[in-house]
Amino acid sequence: MNLRAIQEKRPYLGKEDRRKSLLNAAAELVEEAGWGVLNMSALADRAGVSRQLVYQHFPNLESLLGAAAWAIFTDTMQGTALAITSNPNDIKLAIRSAVFVSLDMPVGKGDALWQLIAGSGLNSPELETIRLGIRGVILKLWVPTMRKAKGLDQAAATGLVWMVILSFWGIRQLIRDGVVSREQGIAQFDALLDRLI
Fold it and tell me: For the whole model, what pTM was predicted?
């Protein structure tokens, strides 16, 4: 336990509130330093609790990584689903609406999601399994809409959706790194969408 936790008594939280608090601390760690730093000890230190308490909520590293990944991904997933349902007859508008969900998130959160989506720097079988699950959710959200909009079969729609997803995240990284401005990145992504869709 860190010095701050020893000096300050942690407040009592119910089981669900404590789990949410731990997931917030886990997300902070990942957003600051990547997935490789998240483990039981690091989470206990960040949250100012004992490792035993962390293990009460997450029995192993796999469950902690999975819960943290889904906690980070949930807002984006919900925003994307809303973009799709709000624009059922215009796939380009749905995609453009979903783009802002991800562009407007904090940089660290976006970086953590990019690592999961692209599989970059994960070096963990647990995170690879989570990455595939997140990809499955993304495809489940977008492929039916793409099939309907473009009259494509499952394989063609899946390929097109994944190309668009990776293109967006690539532009997001260029914006993040200051290679292009936000306006330039959005304009380039829009031009790509106009060609692809």
Answer: 0.80
